[in-house]
Amino acid sequence: MTLTTVKLTLTVNGEQVGPVDVPETMMMQDFLHEYLGLTGSRMGCGQGICHACTVIVEKEDGSLSEMRTCITGVQWFAGRKVRTVEGHARRDGDGAITELSPVQRAFIEHFSFQCGYCTPGFVAAATVFLDGLKKKPVRRDALEQAISDALGKHICRCTGYVRYFEAVRDLALKTPGLVEA
Amino acid sequence: MMRKLLWVAACVIVVCALAVASIFFGAFEKSVVAGDVDEPLTADAMAALAERGAYVAVAADCYACHTAKGGAPWAGGLPFETPFGTIYATNISPDKDNGIGGWSRAEFHRAVRDGVGKNGHLYPAMPYASYRKMTPEDVDAVYAYLMTREPMKVANKANALSFPFNIRRGLTFWNLVNLSGDTQAEVAERSAAWNRGRYLTDALAHCGECHTPRNALQGMKADAYLKGADIEGVHAPDLTKAGLQRMGFGPHVLSAFMKSGLSAQGGMTGQMFEVVHFSTQYMTTDDLDALSAYLFDLDALPADEMTPEMSEPAAVDAELSAAAKPAYLSLCSGCHGVEGQGIPHVVVPLSTNASLRLTNARNLIRVVLDGIPAQRFPGLERMQPMPGFAAELTDRQVADLVNWLRRKWGGQEADIGPQEVGQLRHGLETASAGR
Asked: Considering only the top CATH level, what class is B318-434?
């Protein structure tokens, strides 16, 4: 049996990938793991429920959105800009991490995770959420609900969500311009 | 001459006015309730009837409408959006002030079968045009059962209907046109199962209220009985034998589908999910088999399943495949499978899915746009939520995808255009999508 392939070109963490031949039925998760060695996006349920496989898609208008890679085929990402969990921190010329992103730092400071399996998805969700607040700040009294709405679909089985929640709330409150009085 | 004409005109006007007034005041109302129900039921008779009444009420699906989401049981409050305004289901718990605690046996019969309640005419959102065919014994049983429920002190919500629809007595006109004076008699040459199935279909389960299209006067079209209708933004499919076979159902599968809500033809969604949830899952196997036998016009379910002949996956033209297949592989195949096979106990298959086989594409388009929430089916089955793709796909892309799916696995023509998707995306009812 030969697999039908398609030519794929996309941008991952700021770098162009491809054109590369990939099986037309391949899921993005497998492409990230097997072709690019980016194993940070986790395979959890494989059914789009747990959201551990979520990555960020940077749209042309500069806004960010979440996409689940376990149930989304590679072809959907053709020509798009993708940010995986490996692409959030600043790195030096050798690729060593020099500075975590604000969301990553907040999660560590708040001890938000234990096993860390769900963390790449939460990093993506929180980053998309806070980026959205830059353009459209949330009222202080609506902040908690907005965080729940933004992170609610992500499943964590260790810490019970509270520390993720507190980390995002803390970061939203201390970052100027995200929360209105 | 002029004087004579004026006299004639005046007479015509008076006669018309008299006719309208007599209709309005109920002179032509045809009650199917016999006088013997004026005699109250004894306490012993009520106690004896209540248990069977629970089953009749389940088969008639009373609870689903007469209980608001998260509201007190039987206390009403569920809103019905109609073209004429909003109607709220009423409290039918036996509370004396707000419910039917003070209703006599005769008053209950008149409400259920004639559409005339103790407090005036009912709106046909209450399916009395169907319940009219219920036997007096079944109405008694429901009455006895409801009187055993907990009285709920929950006030009825006022309807928000525009003039003249807010005048309850105006229903006399609708009733005159749409209510038959006859009730359903058994057809002697058909089996008991067929007759029971007909009674379930037409009276208790009131299938035609959604599945039979309505005429300009909002009555069920007798000549299009169960042939499918657009209602509340979705298409209630054709339930005639031909329609069921087109969807891929055989009689045994249909009976099981009404019990479980799941089959190779897909999962129950929307209001039919609720019908399974509150009603048909609790029906006896005999009743479900009878229902299915009647819909397939059989006197009994056959020993072997009559699996309808299904066409092989159709060839899809190359241009449509090029436009739609990448979208299917990208957004659908992760769960529904590359071959449309689905995932057992998680995601329904598409290759045998009834929604792809309907001539009317409305349900498929709406599901692609809006998705389906997670559903818990009887017997520990769970279907995961389907995301909506309204934000990911343009009208053109949805049309291509829907055409490709319908062509490949539904044997339908690839004739859906982006404008039809756009109209459904914006919630507009259209004539074209309602074919």
From this structure: mainly alpha
